[in-house]
Design brief:
Two copies of one chain form a homodimer. By secondary structure, chain A is of the alpha/beta class. Chain A contains 14 helices and twelve strands. Helices cover 47% and strands 16% of the residues of chain A. Chain A is elongated. Chain A starts with a helix and ends in a 12-residue tail after the last strand. Chain A binds a DNA duplex through helix 2 and helix 4.
Chain lengths: 342, 342
DNA sequence: CTTCGACACTTCAACGATGAAGGATCGGTT
DNA sequence: AACCGATCCTTCATCGTTGAAGTGTCGAAG
């Protein structure tokens, strides 16, 4: 194993000088810097992570707490995780993966052991138990999602309300008047999952403003569940011409069911999805969709943590940022003008 | 911050004793152990990760290198990542997430810095550049996937050949004689991705033994691509009554296309999928599927790494294990007896 | 000719844990 | 009484890096 002392010897300087060259915290002459750098390269030196963490009281690791639960669309989680990892590396940080089932104790463990300098929490609930722990330990953290009391932490999330509103606007612009909103399973709403509630609220408000009639129906995302949901919608409101689908699992079944019931998309009914573009492109017809960027979400979360860590190490009190990322509407082939009244 | 010295003082012993109580490496009297344990609890002591790593030359972290690429079905990757994390925690280990784009340098960085004690590599290529690095650094590692030269590392993977063979057997048992194998996009085969090639080879061999005629066709997984693939299959072999689908993205489109072309499943044609059960359950009809457990894969990978670490720290040379996990066939509603000849 | 500040580097004491080696205590042997 | 071995605990050096404080040198100002 190559240590900083080996590098120092090889470059003919003290180990402190090597440390300073590497951290850039003191002025070092051009000549010395060159010699140290080439010694580092020649010996293939990599600073020992443990020693560094111990001495500097910084692990250069952030922890990412991901849900075990899989009613969230999983690829999005993975995309966020990868975006976080990539963004963190650009700041010289690595990412530790923690699962949600460790709960508040997990947060305590990571913070108290100094394993990570900061945490990013996914799948945050409105009154999440982990948040008080973070405050108590004085740990820097960013939530992906919103919480009721987010003092002492930063937050970033998609602007789900705006996404809901975009759906309502698009369908209203096309002349639709009766809309069905196919949501997640009822469990998601009972859990008060922010993304589900806020999308619905955003949609509802805008729908009201635009004079749309609409039904919200829960749906588990299986074929059977979607069939049941659709049947009830068509029974209650036979005049429905627009569908907003938030549940990724329900999209395929819904399209199939509409086709088999003799309705063509977008001539008879329009379908707008709240899902990733990649998924929206896979269906036939390609779906008009409202999307937020998972990559951006991960990137912003990392920026927020880095900001907090920098502020804290300068002795300041970090700002509790709240970022809401604006969603985008991409019009494809699944939405069109409302059919003329028969 | 609570240190081991604080605990020692509180329990009226030396810090070594606390360390021994916690690690269990020396006999400590019942009474002392009790006092130390309660001091730990009362003070909320968590050993400092950096100090521990430095002194013990063990970080209690394993790194998991995940692909950035997303032509693999992403939920499976996430499931593996979570299984790895959960299994690692049971051994007192945490998991660091590294992305594949760091390549061999990433492996070097992690190994040389002592950040992780071992690595698990996903998305392994047959002549993966990272493997020689692992050998050179003497780093313990497990591959998820197979490589040409896996000396010095352990491997675990699904037995894709067996999965292919299971498909052939099931369709042959049902009396089908002309089968189409809908695979991944051609890029996957050009890359010589092991899972794709081995499934196909396993299917081909068994199909030969059972006297099946079959076509292998690549498919990108979009609706258009699936439509094109299916059209060609039906043009070349109108008598095809069995479909094996390995590309998750092609399943939905294929079912829709078969239906719109007037073929019912499973009366006219049988469809068997190589995909997760969760996905297979989502379609109508529910799909007969051959599955390997992603959870098991993650679990075994962790066991292998733990075994290697234990052997290495006992001064031994770890065994280069190779595990192939047996897939399961779950018969559902999408396969049935071959139709009688007209 | 002293004094001073700037610069470039070195010395050295942390950081918090581990574990080999070295006591202390005790009942049991000789 | 002296010794022994077992048991249980402590002392202390060590891990590799960091960064505050200190040293040495040099040129400019007083």
């Amino acid at each position: 194993m190559v240590t900083i002392a080996d590098v120092a010897r090889h470059a003919g300087v003290s180990s402190s000088t090597v440390s300073y060259v590497l951290s850039g915290k003191r002025a070092i002459s051009e000549e010395t810097r060159r010699r140290v750098r080439s010694a580092v390269r020649e010996l293939g030196y990599h600073p020992n992570a443990g020693a560094r963490a111990l001495a500097a009281r910084r692990s250069h690791i952030i922890a990412l707490m991901v849900p075990l639960r899989t009613d969230v669309y999983v690829p999005v989680m993975m995309e966020i995780a990868i975006a976080v990892t990539t963004a963190a590396r650009q700041h010289g940080y690595d990412v530790l993966l923690i699962t949600n089932d460790e709960g508040p104790d997990g947060v305590r463990r990571i913070a108290a052991s100094g394993l990570a300098d900061g945490l990013i929490l996914m799948d945050v609930e409105l009154d999440d138990e982990r948040i008080p722990v973070l405050r108590a330990q004085g740990t820097q953290a960013t939530l992906i999602g919103l919480a009721d009391d987010a003092r002492g932490v930063s937050c970033v999330d998609h602007d789900f309300a705006a996404a809901g509103a975009l759906c309502a606007d698009h369908l209203a612009d096309l002349g639709h008047r009766e809309i069905a909103f196919i949501g997640y399973g009822s469990g998601v709403y009972h859990r008060h999952a922010g993304y589900a509630e806020r999308t619905l609220a955003g949609f509802r408000d805008r729908a009201g403003q635009r004079g749309l009639r609409f039904l919200h129906r829960t749906c588990e995302g299986t074929y059977e569940s979607t069939a049941g949901t659709l049947a009830r919608v068509l029974a209650d409101r036979p005049g429905t011409t627009g569908f907003v689908v938030q549940n990724e699992g329900a999209i395929g079944p819904l399209l199939t069911l509409l086709r088999t019931s003799g309705r063509t998309v977008p001539e008879d009914v329009s379908v707008i999805a709240l899902c990733q573009d990649q998924l929206a492109e896979q269906f036939a017809p390609r779906l008009t969709a409202v999307t937020g960027s998972a990559q951006e979400l991960g990137r912003v979360a990392v920026e927020q943590i880095m900001g907090r860590l920098a502020a804290a190490s300068d002795g300041g009190r970090p700002d509790d940022d709240q970022a809401l990322l604006t969603p985008t509407l991409t019009v494809r082939e699944s939405t069109g003008p409302a059919p003329l009244l028969p």
